[in-house]
Amino acid sequence: MHYAGSSDGPTWWQPASCVKTSAELNVVTYTLDNCTGPSGLVHVTGSAVVTYSAAADGIHASGTASALQVNGTTMDLSAAANYPVTNGTKKLVVATNGSGVGPRGNSITRNGSYRLTWNDATGCGTLDGAWSTGINHATWATSISNYAQCIGHCPTSGRLAHTGGLSGVTVTVDFDGSSQARWTSSRGHSGTIGLFCIK
After folding, report:
1. H or E stretch including 193?
2. Measured between alpha carbons, how far is 63 from 29 in angstroms, rounded to an integer?
3. How would DSSP label each residue in 74-89?
4. Contact 52, 3 (CB under 8 A)
5. At a CB cut-off of 8 Å and minimum separation 6, what does 41 contact?
6. pLDDT tens profile 98-112
7. What are the domain boundaries of the chain?
């Protein structure tokens, strides 16, 4: 989460009045009340505590949330991030994990980590990461590796893979710098996807 520096919440939470912040030295507490946020988050209520620190290898943030209510699901979450800048190249390294219980009593786990690098001068960046969501005994997993792209241009490299928790089918998408990405499935199917980009 981003600290707005006042009692107002970050702009991505709606309505803005649904989240309040309070700070004591480098520890910030965010209190949410029926917020709507990014990635389909709705009815988010609870508190999260984030500790910020600066070190030789960049800015660090470590956050936890207990019994956070998200659309009828109760979650315990933790996350850690590091943000270094070296010779104009910025990097964000994040690891998250969580567990909880859904509105129907299903056990839920959520884990992820990623590394994003970019350079404002060149407008180019890379992304590597892996995420998984488990519900009872089924797991949905997504990974991306060696993904590279400059603003407005087609991805020059990268592979995205997603495995469905119930079907067990894996779909892989490969990027090669062209305006089409090629996909294949573990069931032997394949095809192409048109990309809105410039080669």
Report:
1. strand 190-194
2. 9
3. EEEEEEEEEE-EETTE
4. yes
5. 35, 70, 71
6. 999 998 999 999 999
7. 1-77, 84-199
Cα angle value 25/66/84 (rounded, 5°): 50
Per-residue pLDDT reduced to its tens digit, 122-142: 999 999 999 999 999 899 999
Residue whose pair of structure tokens reads 């109760």 in the numeric block: 74
Give how far Cα 153 sits from Cα of 63, 89, 143, 175, Å: 35, 19, 22, 12
The reported pTM is 0.84
N-terminal to C-terminal alpha carbon distance within the chain: 34
Cβ-based neighbours of 109, under 8 Å, separated by 6 or more:
97, 98, 99, 132, 133, 134
Cα separation, 33 vs 27, in Å, equals 20
Joined tokens for residue 191: 């095809």
Tell me the backbone φ, ψ of residue 16, rounded to 5 degrees: -60, -30
User: Using an 8 Å Cβ cutoff, are 189 and 161 in contact?
Assistant: no
Pick from 132, 163, 161, 133: which is nearest to 146 by CA? 161
Here the tokens at position 98 are 């969580």
The residue type found at 86 is: T
Alpha-carbon distance of 91 to 11, in angstroms, equals 23
Tokens matching residue 13: 């939470």
Neighbours of 32 (CB within 10 A): 23
